[in-house]
Design brief:
This protein has 329 residues and is mostly helical. The chain has a domain of 181 residues: MetI-like fold, CATH 1.10.3720. The chain has 15 helices and two strands. It has a two-stranded antiparallel sheet with strand order 1-2. Helix 4 crosses helix 9 and helix 9 runs antiparallel to helix 12.
Amino acid sequence: MASFVDQVSVSRPRSRFWRSKKLSPLERNQAKWGYIFISPWLIGFVIFTIIPMIASLAFSFMNFQLATPEDASFIGLQNWRRMLFQDPNVWQSLGVTFKFALITLPIGFSLAIFLAILLNSHDLVGKNVFRTLFYAPTMVPGIAAILIWSGMLNPQTGWINRAIQGVTGYPAVGINGVRWLDEPSLVYFAYTFIGIWAIGNTILITLAGLQGVPTELYDASKVDGAGWWRRLWHITLPMISPVLFYNLILGVIGLLQYFNTPYVLNGGNGYPEGATRFYMIWFYKQAFNFANMGYAATLAWFMFIISLILTLFLFGTARHWVYYAGGNR
């Protein structure tokens, strides 16, 4: 006979499609007032998002220089041809971006889940204090946090190297320390430290998902003899999979648009040895350093297409591992 844990392991029901139905007069009236109340947001969305997106798509087919907008001219697919086949910096910056994402995303994602589970433990003393402490870094302005970390990672005086020296006895400071921001092999891990410091929001969302898991599932699994790992794998993770999926989508999109840290630390010059020339850095240079808005719009749309493809891929895989209690997707 199958154990309780095997029985509650998530079954994936087939997707259902919404069936249209005729609205009653009351429902039509509610819908009308709903649109009226959200109309300020809809108007702002159209003016500040939809129209600029359409304009940028038009610019991607034009030679549009910010310094001489009156000389803008239609050039067809030349910007796209240049981006795909003639500009090696595009593919180099994409490689840097994806390499960093492959390092940072698994580390940050796993750590957020681990800390959320720890903070959800009933046996943890002072967990409200720890929750506050983990969330507090997200309240620090991003630029200020980056500058703080640049001091902490300083090879001569930074706290990180001093901590390494104190724990291991290795004279890190005496030999100019670990050059976190100067070595291509270490800079991604340094940037990962900076990003992980502010994962409090992800922890908070994951914690909210954990608190929605029915406790009777855990009680019954304990009676059935399931251990901690089995409860985690068969109950906890499947039950919070919608929250994990949400965090994963935001994490992927956020890493594809990674910009602030490399720009603040070294002005976007790619130091060291081009290792920090992220895609958004190259886009920013084209738009605001070289004032080539037509080509910059092409770069922006290319990133939009990449983000859309990855998002659709994740949604396509979701039916295999994301479980919704209501059975709908």
